[in-house]
């Protein structure tokens, strides 16, 4: 299981014409896609220059968009996520999706989720690990980004949407932490049990040693050994 850093929380692909999200993945979170669809409906196709990088911020999240071949590619990241890496993520998403999402023009909402799930999750995992992906993109120059302005109600909906994913993310991390705690507790319990058994064995050995030693002393004091020697001589 790959580690979750919380840098990337959503990847999606939608048609530009009707703003239908044909494929998406919510990475270790749960998101209300209705808010995302309403955001897409504000986009004007004639202003979405192909291969250009568009972005806007909502709360502590940043959304990056790129249009190409009648599709809109989206990624949701932390607010301080480097724009150059966000743009690289979208370009790689576009390139990989074109090889598996050939039915995007006629697909129903979420119709390509199953086919694209593995690809989308791998991309999320790759770009979520910012320290590693930064090394691969050190040569990237600053990306020219077009800032988008969303209506207040759309921003609020997206804010609520990302707030939901934060809660779900924290719950998932707490659940994972509880599993780790339980495993550690079981390991400690086994160690304590083995330690107790060891001390019990040592205690039994010590008691046997003391009993044996005491028995020898008593026999020596009572002359049991001498009587045995005398009896042997008489024989």
Provide key terms for this protein.
235 residues; alpha+beta; 6-stranded mixed sheet; 6 helices; 6 strands; rod-shaped
Outline of this structure?
It contains 6 helices and 6 strands.
Structural summary, described in words:
Helix content is 56%, strand content 17%. The radius of gyration is 34 Å and the shape is rod-shaped. Helix 1 runs antiparallel to helix 5. It has 235 residues and is of the alpha+beta class.
SSE blueprint and pairings:
Layout: E1 8-15, E2 21-26, H1 33-40, E3 53-58, E4 61-68, E5 71-78, H2 83-100, H3 113-128, H4 130-136, E6 145-147, H5 152-222, H6 224-234
Parallel strand pairs: 3-6
Antiparallel strand pairs: 1-2, 1-5, 3-4, 4-5
Helix pairs in contact: 1-5, 2-3
Shape: rod-shaped
Q: Over the alpha carbons, how many angstroms does the gyration radius reach?
A: 34 Å
Mean pLDDT: 81
Distance between the termini: 82 Å
Low-confidence stretches: none
Proportion of residues in helical segments: 55-70%
Strand/helix succession: EEHEEEHHHEHH
| Discrete helix count | 6
Biggest sheet record: 6 strands, mixed
User: How do the strands line up in the largest sheet?
Assistant: 2-1-5-4-3-6
- The percentage of residues in β strands lies in 15-25%
Q: Structural class, from helix and strand content?
A: alpha+beta
